[in-house]
Specification:
about 400 residues; alpha/beta; Rossmann fold; 2 domains; five-stranded parallel β-sheet; about 40% helix
Length: about 400
């Protein structure tokens, strides 16, 4: 019978559906490499990774590791206020970015700087943003690591969790209406999937048939809350079919698998003109941020065991098997990446701050009278009390 709510079959059995009544097998996790980086025979690999692509992916990952290490230490030295690393999740970000098209619009959380680096955002760009200097495209208005680049189709990162999910659906719907062969790629953590915006976004994406690729980075921890306290269902991928969204679970530490999964997800989203949900199983090897001490809620043995499963080393071993990389080349590349990160910090530190007057720009095309009056009041105060102006910050 066709009910207004949908076409459903009838049954004579009073049968419940769900845990304890109809147990279902856990969604399997797609991977292409074993834990040591050796290729697994028989793996479906619809999208090839050649030597040039693999080399660029690896070099981007080691550059990301160098930036994370150096910038984290710089924050600890008091050079800027905040930092977050993507330690343990490098392959999820970089391999997925490699599978996207430059025309695809990207929305991320705050641990996907590797996506932006793949698109051409340099360590110097990152240092300028963290310092909030005059070369920062955000004009010093955002917290450190809240990157953004209009030129690279990368929307500025927002601190509140999950706000980017419904925004990505809107962008994907716009791409669909414009007839563009592009998708919106939306990254988030499993903790963000506990927000209402996640559910609204999946429902909107399905009903609007918006070509958006949702990429959940399930690292097991929402700051200090373990996944076991966040949900009882089959992770995040298990939620997709309930909303009519095709879903796939992938090993986030396997760069080959992530690349193939995202490339295939993009193809499906474009061909079906609809959403796709990927759950990348990973682990946050570092602290949540420089404001966190994860040793207070995680065992040291757990962290050490996962650090030993470095996804970058795993990908390097896969390349070495193919004769595309060797240890000497790796040492040289890491030294070069470290030098670039250090030089970026030094250069960014020498730049002046954005002018104080920039506080009043960019919100309106023509500033309204109350903002004009506020700007005049601030400028008059600073001229009368020049010692209140932060060091290195011009007035105009």
């Amino acid at each position: 019978m066709d009910f207004p709510g949908g076409k459903v079959p009838f049954t004579e059995d009073l049968a419940w559906l769900g845990p304890g009544f109809t147990p279902r097998p856990t969604i399997p996790c797609y991977r292409a490499l074993d834990s040591q980086g050796a290729p697994l025979p028989g793996t479906s690999l619809p999208h090839d990774i050649d030597q040039a692509l693999a080399t660029r992916m690896y070099e981007t990952m080691i550059s990301l590791q160098a930036v994370d290490t150096i910038f984290y230490e710089a924050q600890r030295q008091g050079r800027f206020s905040f930092y977050m690393t993507s330690t343990g999740e490098e392959s999820t970000a970089v391999a997925s970015a490699a599978a996207l098209n430059p025309d695809d619009v990207v929305f991320t959380q705050y641990r996907e700087q590797g996506v932006l680096m793949w698109r051409g955002y340099t360590p110097l760009d990152m240092a300028n943003q963290c310092y909030g200097n005059a070369l920062d495209s955000g004009k010093g208005r955002q917290m450190p690591v809240h990157y953004g680049s209009k030129a690279l189709n990368f929307h500025t990162i927002s601190s509140p969790l999950a706000t980017q999910l419904p925004q990505a659906v809107g962008a994907a719907y716009a791409l669909k209406l414009e007839g563009k062969a592009a998708v919106a790629a939306c990254y988030f953590g499993e903790g963000a999937a506990s927000e209402g915006d996640f559910h609204a976004a999946l429902n909107f994406s399905a009903t609007l048939s918006a070509p958006v690729v949702f990429i959940c980075r399930n690292n097991g921890w929402a700051i200090s809350t373990p996944a076991s306290e966040q949900y009882r269902g089959d992770g995040i991928a298990g939620r997709g079919p309930s909303y009519g969204v095709p879903s796939l679970r992938v090993d986030g530490g396997d760069a080959v698998a992530v690349y193939n999964a995202v490339a295939e997800a993009r193809r499906v989203a474009l061909e079906r003109r609809g959403p796709v949900l990927l759950e990348a199983m990973s682990y946050r090897s570092g602290h949540h941020s420089t404001s966190d001490d994860s040793s207070r809620y995680r065992a040291a043995e757990e962290m050490a065991a996962w650090r030993a499963r470095d996804p970058v080393a795993r990908f390097e071993r896969w390349m070495a098997v193919r004769g595309w990389w060797d240890e000497a080349r790796g040492v040289g590349a890491r030294k070069a990446a470290r030098r670039e990160a250090i030089a970026a910090l030094a250069a960014a530190a020498k730049q002046p701050r954005p002018p104080l007057s920039e506080m009043f720009s960019d919100v309106y095309d023509e500033p309204p009278p109350h903002l004009v009056a506020q700007r005049a009041e601030v400028e008059a105060f600073v001229r009368a009390h020049p010692e209140t102006l932060p060091a290195g910050m011009p007035l105009e």
